[in-house]
C-alpha cells in the first residue's frame, strides 16, 4: 500500500508540475484548437476521455454518497488525470491498508 501511495502522490506531483508548465508557457485554448484540428489530436482526446469515463464508473461504484461521487466525477471530467491521481491518493489513505476497501469503497 505504501508503494501505491508513493506512486499516486508522484503522479499527482508530476501532473501538477506539467499543468503549471502548460498554463504558464502554453497558448491556452488556441493550442487546444490546434490539437483538435489534427487527426491524432482527436484520437488523443477520445482516448483520454474514454479512460476518464472508465475511472468515473469506478468512482460511482466506490462512493456510497451520490453527492461526493458526483463531485469527484465532475472534478475528474474537468481536471482530468490530475483529479484521478488526487482521488487515488485520498482513497488509498482512507482505506487504511485494506485493498478490498480501496477497490470497493
Features:
about 100 residues; globular; about 90% helix; 6 helices
Q: What share of the residues lie within helices?
A: over 70%
The fraction of residues assigned to DSSP E strands is under 5%
How far the N terminus sits from the C terminus, by CA atoms, comes to 15 Å
Characterize the largest beta sheet: strand count, sense, and whether it forms a barrel: none
Number of strands: 0
Q: Can you count the helices?
A: 6
Mean pLDDT: 95
Enumerate the spans where pLDDT stays under 50 for 5 or more consecutive residues: none
* Secondary-structure element order, N to C: HHHHHH
Overall SS class: mainly alpha
Q: Can you tell me the overall shape?
A: globular
Rg, Å, rounded: 15 Å
Task: Outline the structure in words.
There is one protein chain. The protein is mostly helical. 88% of the residues lie in helices and 0% in strands. The longest helix has 24 residues. 13% of the residues are buried. The model has no long low-confidence stretch (mean pLDDT 95).
Amino acid at each position: 500500500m505504501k508503494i501505491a501511495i508513493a506512486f499516486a502522490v508522484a503522479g499527482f506531483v508530476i501532473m501538477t508540475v506539467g499543468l503549471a508548465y502548460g498554463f504558464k508557457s502554453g497558448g491556452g485554448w488556441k493550442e487546444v484548437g490546434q490539437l483538435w484540428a489534427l487527426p491524432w489530436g482527436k484520437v488523443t482526446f477520445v482516448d483520454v476521455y474514454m479512460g476518464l469515463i472508465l475511472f468515473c464508473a469506478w468512482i460511482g461504484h466506490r462512493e456510497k454518497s451520490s453527492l461526493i461521487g458526483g463531485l469527484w466525477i465532475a472534478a475528474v471530467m474537468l481536471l482530468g488525470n490530475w483529479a484521478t491521481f488526487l482521488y487515488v491518493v485520498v482513497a488509498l489513505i482512507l482505506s487504511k491498508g485494506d485493498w478490498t476497501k480501496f477497490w470497493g469503497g
